[in-house]
């Protein structure tokens, strides 16, 4: 996905471990709503340890793909493949949200220590702690709060 923004648009960055499941769901959901409602923001997503999903047979979690389909959200609203987080990504984002503090703060301290305490953290568990049927709706609720912050429907 190519991120097209105007000079007054804000860029949101969603971060998770593999950039395969949670962050990609948040990215697609936000971009879909932002486009539909003409919001001055777009999202992109990255992973802190994309090597963990390098052997996956798909480029996007099947759970994420299935849920986006259920919501009627086209897959072009998320990136084409898991992408490793770089310092440049953090620098260009107006707001960065990692999906789970207990999981990602330590990873941020190791990979990008200067950014670890400058970003926002949610608490959305990965699949090893919470089934996608429960985790994805949590992401959806949090993303809808962001959409409202940018002037989307209440």
Folded structure, characterized:
This protein has about 150 residues and is of the alpha/beta class. The chain has a single domain, classed as Response regulator (Rossmann fold). About 40% of the residues lie in helices and about 15% in strands. The protein has a four-stranded parallel beta sheet with strand order 2-1-3-4, with helices on both faces. β1 (about 10-15), α1 (about 20-35) and β2 form a beta-alpha-beta unit. The radius of gyration is 14 Å and the shape is globular. Mean pLDDT is about 90; it is low at about 1-5.
CATH class designation = Alpha Beta
Biggest beta sheet attributes: 4 strands, parallel
**Distance between the amino and carboxyl termini:** 27 Å
Net shape: globular
* Integer tally of domains: 1
Please state the average pLDDT score. 91
Proportion of beta-strand residues? 5-15%
Number of helices: 5
The appropriate CATH architecture is: 3-Layer(aba) Sandwich
Low-confidence stretches: 1-5
Strand order of the largest sheet: 2-1-3-4
Question: Characteristics of this structure?
Answer:
single chain, 154 residues, alpha/beta, Rossmann fold, 4-stranded parallel beta sheet, 4 strands, globular, disordered N terminus
